[in-house]
Amino acid sequence: MNRDSRLSGVLHVLLHMAQFDGPVTSETLARAMGTNPVVVRRVMAGLRDAGYVRSEKGHGGGWRLTADLANITLLDIYRALGNPSLLAIGHRSDNPDCAVERAVNAVLEESFEAAEALLLARFGEVSLAELNARFAPENALWREGFLHDHGSEPSR
Fold first, then answer.
1. What is the pLDDT of residues 20-60, one digit of tens each?
2. Residue 127 bridge partners (DSSP)
3. How big, in percent rounded to 5, are the helix, strand and coil portions of the chain?
4. How far, rounded to the nearest angstrom, does the alpha carbon of residue 11 sit from its chain's CA centroid?
5. pTM
6. Distance (Å, whole) CA 41 – CA 27
7. Which of 9, 98, 106, 136 is deepest in the core (most CB within 10 A)?
């Protein structure tokens, strides 16, 4: 079963952006993530619509954060992605007239709702600044290594 990794990818992009003082191109972000710039632009469009980033055109342009990481939570980004499904588990609906199936589905649905509520509450407690701080000692080393490996620094 394929898992939806969009939330992880978006958080990854935002935290990479936070390492630079100026706009960051889709190409630079794509290199940092090992993906295609088109994928980055698609993700950034949704974040732009939600007001978390903006694009700057022309030479020296790129993507820029518009909000402080301390004011953005995992829940905010989850919602900006359109509330993707959190659980990969489902229930059967082959025979809705079966009392056993209805009972099982009811208990599962209650459990899924409770689990999602807990997860969403936790998402609301974690800011991107807190997430960024988890690897803060490595930020300078990451940035230095990235710039060395890729030979250019985003515009300032």
1. 888 999 998 888 778 889 988 888 888 999 999 999 888 88
2. 73
3. 60, 5, 35
4. 3
5. 0.78
6. 9
7. 9
